[in-house]
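Hello,

I think I submitted the adenosine-5'-diphosphate job twice by accident. Can you confirm which output corresponds to this input? Input:
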Amino acid sequence: MHAVRSTMMSVPLSLNHLLDRAGRLFPQARIVSRLPDKSLRRHSYADFHRRTLALASALKAAGLRKGDRVATLCWNHHAHLECYFGIPAAGGVMHTLNLRLSADEIGWIAQHAEDRFLIVDDVLLPLYEQFRRHHAFERVIVFPFSGAAVATRAGDPHDGEPAIDDYEQLLARAPAGFEPLAHDEDDPVAMCYTSGTTGRPKGVVYSHRSTVLHTLMASLPDHWGLSARDTVLPVTPMFHANSWGIPYGAVMLGANLVFPGPHLHAHDLLDLIALEPPTLSLGVPTIWLTLIQAMQAEPGRWKLPAGMRSLVGGAAVPESLIRAFDAHGVTIQQGWGMTETSPVATVFYRKPELEPASEDTWFRLKATAGIVVPLVDLRIVGEDGPCPWDGTSVGEIQVRGPFITGQYHQTPPEPEKFSDDGWLRTGDVGTVDTHGYLRITDRSKDLIKSGGEWISSVDLENAIMGHPSVAEAAVIAIAHPKWGERPLACVVLRPGQRVEPQVIRDHLAGRFASWQIPDAIEFIDAVPRTSTGKFWKAKLRQDFAGWRWPD
Ligand code: ADP
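Support: Only one job matched these inputs. Its output is below.
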């Protein structure tokens, strides 16, 4: 008998295919970018396709070699999208720099990644000036986002100063007839550094293959349900885990895109939503909190597009937030993931077998992180090994799959990051119920251990934020002489509200065992934010380092 082998072609998965398809099939799809002066610039996908090939051609003509890193320091706009596809088409690796990090951190990251070129918004040049001494780029390409003229200069190998180009002039001069470079599907296309809340940031490198598989998975109907009929507003920065992969999905399917540029204040976002109504928007819960608060502060000023879906993740999404948007006809769909997971690893959707469930049950489930996505394996590992999916066993969430990183760029393997059998140890703690819904109870470093029992800071925060007088809440562990640790709730009240700590505690009574309820409640002006806009509990812990329990 002859052995049987697959007869299928072995064609490498490729971002170039997505780009080519967009140019051919969706030339009329729209890309709207908000400029620094708040005006809107419009492009078609035909423009995007032409300009992206011009960028790739220009990079190649400028000497880019296969595997060279091209950093971007940009807001969300059409040119950043061109980088997403143009840099890989030229054989380069796009490295998105997080413009909210300190100049020292950005410089360290650019140095570690050995970035050769930099594409930077002109409005971000002052930030570049602050970190340029840490890392010498060979060429700096300035995108005239504000419309001001760019001061270009030829490179001089003797003075060590980079060449400076104007992005638009570079595209205009690009040699015609460029063809995207051939590649293997495992070749790198992009890299992103983790935020480095524990130690130095670490680089995650995505491949053509991982990106295409993630894009296909994330666009499925039970996930983003993305289609050519959608208009997508990515508020999630394009430097934050590839804006969760939505730029790739939109280009693959020809969805319209609306980019907010640097204008992320709630009023600006609500104005933009009114001008260019999206059907799908994405962002972290803290930004969505500011939207709902702005609408509540000025009832009637803004209206959300009926039927808009919002993918909200990156941090726990309080049930009260989901309910508040639902009252405006907007569905919030929660997802969980991390830079290391490309990033979508779980997404909430309604499982049909639960359909008769009450509205309250659905809201409770919507406040979970959802269900593990296809192609990803997920397990919960407790102190005694893998836990059953029973909704009560809590342990570390571990994942593996073709778009999960198996190591970090130029970093020695660390046992606390990867298990012996090769799973990613996420550092998040949670439980999966019998239907497969994952509930994140904490990041392991945010857990509170009181009298030997764990208390979930996330559950407490979400419940406190459900109180009508509360705008924001973050709960941290404070060392306690008797109990080891006890929770301290840091609460931001809505404008004009005054409540006593006991009111918050009464609100929690009944939902939590008495030993889980924070004895200490501090009212603060705002919860500090991380570089990706999430609650920054490490900073809060620092701020309250000197806090003492009353004798
Ligand atoms: P960082 O938050 O450190 O900037 P990432 O963007 O990679 O970096 O964030 C990943 C982390 O965000 C996860 O490990 C998890 O702690 C948190 N996270 C993401 N989504 C959710 C969610 N839906 N619920 C709770 N935590 C989440």
